[in-house]
Amino acid sequence: MSPPPSTSTPPVEYTWRDSELTSPTLRALNAVGNAVKRLGREVPSLAPEGVVRAAVNQAGSGDLGSDSYREPLEVFLRSCGTEAELTTFGRILVTKMLSAALANRIELHRWAAEHPAVRQETIDRPWIIVGLPRTGTSVLSNLVGLDPMARPLRQWEAAHLIPPPTLEGAEEDPRIARTAKELDGLMKLNPPLKAMHPFGATLAQECVSLFMYDIRTLALETQAHVPTYARWLEHADMAPAYAQHKLALQALQSAQPTGRWILKTPNHLWHLEALLATYPDARIIWTHRDPGPVVTSLASLANAGQRPLTSRADPRPAAEEWKRKCAFALGSAVAYDQAAGDGWCQHLHYVDLMADPIAAVRGLYQRVGETLSDLHVRRMEAFLEHRPQDVFGHHRYDPADFGWTYAGLSEEFAEYRARYRVAPEVH
Question: What is the pTM for the complete model shown?
């Protein structure tokens, strides 16, 4: 990726509006697609068979392990066709993303079949961060992942999993440069994303990417407005997705043993029962932040992610959908918390994490009976010094863009804020 800009000048400000597709070539492609659409045909096809065929051709095998991916693939593509208002470029990008995910699945199952000992790997007491998006989960996972006895999932590993990188070759693996180039292309296509979310081939990655192997993931909803798929996913059996998730970790761990995994994705908050059924000894960390800025920031991020792929100009449908999704997730998680009782997770407030990140991590370790090593502390200090906030720009968001006010959002989420003593950030 390109080097970060100098921090001696004020950071560039980005909003979701800055994600407008500007490439003359891609805009011309969409114009051709619109002309074809007026003739009664949309290209490329969103047929599931075409996506699977492309994945099989890419991976060189047709063994996907099971057909658990089939229903979510069909629901998602149907939702794309009827709700997402994808442009021609959007349809191309979405189908390529899906075929790449299924190709990764094929390669993973082939590797596991050729190396059966992989399935004997035990994922002991992983640390799993489950807070809503925009609640500090990224910085927390990066900091905890610096523990010499632990390891996170790296962005390049998630993108190109097989063969699992070995201890000998991981630091010079050509897939690092490949992923960096891919991310650089994404940033050039959609510059605001670099200010809205941390990207970097060797940074910790959300393990939501492993759910892509079963097409059961919130990640798809950042690319397209698909409320029908969203509601299907909220009530779907996530056991098949967690099976892919675990097998991927087992494959990686077989080549690079670790004391523990450091994982994070908000996706877990929607499905805590499935998470703990798969990893019953997991140490769960739930991050809390005022939902007002959380939902507003997320609405901006979702629109920024979808904007280059859709003809829809109105940001409110995607914003309302993600607000509803957050309310659903918090409702489900609170219900689980009430039934589970104390001790099933550690709660961490965003304001505490931002005020003193190292102290916050130290507190988490103390609560589970462990002590930070001096080396871990030094690594965190170095990380925070060399990767300050806003290095790639500042994400500016406003609830008025989506027809909201912070006062109204505070009222909507008042019950959650009261239960977890979350103070409002914006008055």
Answer: 0.93
